[in-house]
Design a protein that fits this description.
The complex is a heterodimer. By secondary structure, chain A is mainly α. Chain A has one domain: ABC transporter involved in vitamin B12 uptake, BtuC (Orthogonal Bundle), CATH 1.10.3470. Chain A contains 13 helices and 2 strands; from the N terminus they run ααααααββααααααα. Chain A is globular and about 60 Å long. By secondary structure, chain B is α/β, with parallel strands linked by helices. The longest helix of chain B has 42 residues. A 7-stranded mixed β-sheet of chain B has the order 2-1-3-4-5-13-12, with helices on both faces. In chain B, strands 6, 7, 8, 9, 10, 11 and 14 form a 7-stranded mixed β-sheet that branches. The radius of gyration of chain B is 24 Å and the shape is globular. In chain B, α2 packs across α10. Classes of the chains: A mainly alpha, B alpha/beta. The interface between A and B is large, with 39 and 36 residues.
Chain lengths: 332, 354
């Protein structure tokens, strides 16, 4: 991550701090280590796919099929494990991520071949993947009793625990895949030529092509990468809820798109920060998980997220305009 | 050349739709004929004997899952017991549209009775009316709201009684005192809210030492994840909470949250539950009671009721529908209430596999 936070990320931090102080004043129960642990745990799945989506959005694309990919990958690999009796966590992650890569590549191939907006393509494949899974694999739900035991151990696993007079709280193991995904994304975006290519085609595909980047290869990579992270996330999700459903996750994509956009990613591509996305996800989960503490009903959550989303988009576009004027570019 | 090929293809396509249109028209004509002869035959039902084998009853379930698989076994049993010509239709997707198209087919086939567990009761009403106009008996399950449009709606229990069962089991598990919270799938879900209100009222009346932490139920959005996240919050906001009840079948999420916080032994959970999804929690003690009703028995009772009505024997107060818990139907308007709640604990959970 960059050493200096930009203006925009500072603004997000301020929002988080002000809101936290407000909640803490309303209900001191908020000021506990457990709060941090809970938010880390509940936001871990979203975090993983947000990194994948960030990379796709920086490249100028969008992916709304990643939840279907996560479901397809995790359901298929866990279903295989239930049927064959394999009980190995690494196998689950590997198979699910592999399926994710394959489905992501299908997205990239379709986008490249049909030359249609990625939104339409991935909206289609979202339904397509989900349909293929429920039609040809299975559409049954599986309870914790039949799931591989390694999964539950992972879902309930903690890095360390603190004990209080009132039960215990632990830092979830799910933090490890989140960190892996975050560091990997950082290395790819900032330390490789591929990362420069991703930003380049997001800014202007034609210029990138002339500079010697191959948009097709880059596109294959970003959608495959998004698929791989989605596959991993599916396993983390199934481990946390300790059950396997054929119809969960799909439908929650836009909340993650919102988180990434709140994090300062430009929807037209070419710009986006990892730490910004982390803050975006944190804001959404912070709002979501404190309503009971301050005694508001769940409908307030939508109101807050909606308001912050609109403000975030307005601020990014305003900053863009100011920057453009400073560089004497007049677009409007 | 290409254009010519295209025009040929297009005209073939147009021709074929024309033919398709004709053939479908003849099909509807045939079906309307069938329907009209159908009315005639039901008018003469009186002369038809009461032999169950003469009656064709079809059950349309919501979708394919373990719940309705169990319902199908109950209906299979009914076929064996009585010889009734009964079968099950499973829509490919769980929505009203696919149930409507199956119903349309059955109306065309002129069956004697249709039983349906509607995905969206109100959306089915026009088709139900069409079927009844064609002389077909329609029996629903889990649709008390549209009971006036059908011959009979079979319910496993009165909602108040089931709600009180949540309260009784929770009070017993908590020893009659302490703070508790209630969850529903969503504030707009009629049955969940009816159970929630009945439970809260019962506790208020009979267990003055128990306090509900909120005036309204928390929403888990019918997802385990939702139940888990909300439970974590409630645990933080009310560290001294001693019990939860969940009117949607997601109590497992609450149990997971309790296990994470090392509170599974001290905080009690009573939840609507499917045996297959909750056996682990009942066995490890994090869930003290699961509540439910048996889909096999409900399917059995609904189809048997459909046969009784179609054969002119009718269903009245106290009619025995031959299934456990439905042996003494309480008829209110068009709704027949059984008394068939199913309670699971760690000791009997292995007897059920739906």
């Amino acid at each position: 991550m960059k050493k200096k936070l930009d203006q925009y990320q500072k603004m997000l931090m301020v929002i988080i701090i002000i809101y936290s102080v407000f909640v803490a004043l309303k209900n001191p129960q908020f000021l506990k280590v457990q709060t941090v642990f809970d938010i880390i745990k509940t936001s871990s799945t979203t975090m993983i796919v947000a990194f994948g989506l960030l990379v796709v959005m920086i490249s100028g694309g969008i992916d709304v099929s990643f939840m279907a990919i996560a479901l397809f990958g995790s359901y298929t690999s866990l279903y295989t494990m239930i049927k064959t009796g394999i009980n190995n966590l690494a196998f689950a992650f590997a198979l699910s991520a592999f399926i994710g890569v394959c489905l992501g590549l299908i997205n990239a191939l379709l986008i490249n071949w049909l030359k249609l907006p990625p939104f339409i393509i991935t909206l289609g494949t979202q339904n397509l993947f989900h349909g293929i899974m429920t039609t040809f694999i299975s559409d049954k739900s599986f309870g914790s009793g039949v799931l591989p035991t390694c999964l539950h151990q992972f879902g309930q696993g903690t890095l360390f625990k603190i004990y209080t007079e009132n039960g215990s709280a632990g830092l979830t193991v799910s933090l490890i895949p989140v960190l892996i995904a975050g560091i990997l994304t950082y290395l790819i975006l900032y330390k490789t030529m591929l990362g420069r290519g991703i930003v380049a085609i997001g800014n202007n595909e034609e210029s990138a092509r002339r500079a010697g980047f191959n948009p097709f290869i880059i596109r294959l990579f970003v959608y495959g990468y998004s698929g791989a992270l989605a596959g991993m996330m599916g396993i983390v999700y199934a481990a946390q809820v300790n059950a396997l459903y054929p119809n969960k996750m799909v439908g929650d994509e836009l909340m993650i798109v919102a988180a990434v956009v709140i994090g300062g990613t430009k929807i037209t591509g070419g710009q986006g920060k990892i730490f910004g996305s982390v803050l975006g996800v944190l804001i959404i989960y912070l709002l979501n998980s404190t309503l009971i503490l301050i005694g508001l009903s769940s409908s307030w959550n939508n109101l807050f997220v909606g308001a912050i989303l609109v403000i975030a988009v307005a601020v990014t576009s305003y900053q863009e305009r100011v920057k453009n004027r400073n560089h004497l570019i007049f677009t409007e | 050349m290409k254009k010519r090929l295209l025009s040929v293809v297009l005209s073939i396509a147009m021709l074929s739709t024309l033919f398709a249109g004709c053939s479908s028209k003849t099909a509807t004509e045939a079906s309307s004929q069938a329907a009209s002869t159908g009315t005639a035959s039901t008018v003469s039902t009186g002369s038809k004997s009461a032999d169950p084998a003469d009656y064709k009853v079809v059950m349309i379930v919501k979708q394919s899952d373990s719940w309705f698989d169990d319902m199908a076994t109950g209906i299979e049993q009914l076929k064996k017991d009585t010889g009734l010509n009964v079968s099950v239709q499973v829509p490919e997707v769980g929505d009203a549209a696919s149930q409507i198209s199956i119903m349309e087919d059955l109306i065309a086939q002129n069956v004697d009775a249709i039983c349906v567990v509607p995905n969206d009761p109100a959306a089915l009403v026009p088709t139900i009316e069409k079927a009844r106009k064609a002389g077909i008996v329609v029996v629903t399950h889990e649709a008390p709201g549209t009971a006036d449009n059908v011959d009979l709606d079979v319910e496993a229990f009165a909602n108040e009684a089931f709600g009180e069962l949540f309260a009784k089991n929770l009070a017993k598990a908590m020893g009659g005192k302490g703070k508790y919270a209630g969850f529903v799938g969503g504030l707009t879900m009629e049955t969940h809210m009816a159970w929630y209100k009945a439970a809260v009222n019962y506790i208020k009346k009979n267990y003055p030492d128990m306090q509900n932490v909120a005036d309204e139920p928390y929403e888990d959005g019918n997802s385990v994840e939702g139940a888990h996240d909300k439970a974590l919050e409630v645990l933080k906001a009310y560290p001294d909470i001693a019990g939860f009840f969940d009117c949607s079948a997601q109590g497992g999420g609450i149990c997971e949250a309790l296990q994470e916080n090392g509170k599974a032994k001290t905080v009690k959970v009573v939840s609507l539950a499917l045996p297959s999804m909750s056996s682990t929690y009942l066995k490890n003690g994090s869930m003290s009671h699961g509540l439910c009703w048996r889909p096999a028995d409900a399917g059995y009772a609904a189809c048997y009721a459909a046969y009784l009505i179609a054969s002119g024997q009718g269903v009245a107060n106290g009619t025995d529908l031959k299934a456990t818990g439905y042996d003494n139907i309480e008829l209110k308007g068009h709704i027949g209430y059984g008394n068939a709640p199913l309670e699971f604990t760690a000791s009997n959970i292995n007897d059920y596999n739906f």
